[in-house]
Write a structure and sequence with these properties.
It is a single chain. This protein is of the alpha+beta class. The chain is 22% helix and 31% strand. The chain is built from three helices and six strands. The strands form two sheets. Strands 1, 2, 3 and 4 form a four-stranded mixed β-sheet that branches. It has a two-stranded antiparallel ribbon with strand order 5-6. Helix 2 crosses helix 3. It is elongated, with a radius of gyration of 20 Å.
């Protein structure tokens, strides 16, 4: 994901980090996932961190909160991104009007035009990816 997009971070920790031996587990690592999210006419990246905890007093295993389910397992787009893509593809009266910092307005509608919009914020995709996202079964 492009580093210039704003990030909204969420940390998902296990409910209980007390080991069976009674000691508190400490973070030993984490898994990080990033997904592309759209707030109307604004792009941002949702970052989810899931710390891994282990006990220093014993070797009783590592715990970590489960990942939240995604509409497309392992996929980059969020629910809002998919909704925006599908609505803008199938509802031609729903144009995306975007004002860039220089003040010009651009309207995007179909997948190839939406791909052009994504490229302008350094997200490289094409209409084939968007077709795949739009056609994916919902988990």
């Amino acid at each position: 994901m492009p580093p210039h997009l704003p990030r909204v971070e969420e940390v998902i920790a296990p409910d209980n980090i007390i080991c069976d031996c009674g000691c508190e587990r400490h973070i030993i690592g984490k898994d990080v996932s990033e997904r592309l999210d759209i707030v109307p006419s604004q792009f941002r990246v949702l970052v989810t961190r899931r710390p891994k905890y282990a006990c220093r007093a014993c070797e009783n295993g590592i715990i970590q909160a489960p990942a939240k389910p995604h509409l497309i397992e392992g996929g980059m787009p969020t629910e809002a991104t998919l909704a925006t893509i599908v609505i803008n593809k199938h509802a031609p009266s729903r144009d995306i009007a975007v004002q860039y910092p220089a003040g010009q307005w651009t309207i995007y509608r179909c997948f190839d035009r939406q791909a052009s919009l994504l490229v302008k914020v350094c997200i490289w995709t094409d209409q084939h990816w968007q077709n795949g996202w739009a056609a994916s079964p919902i988990s």
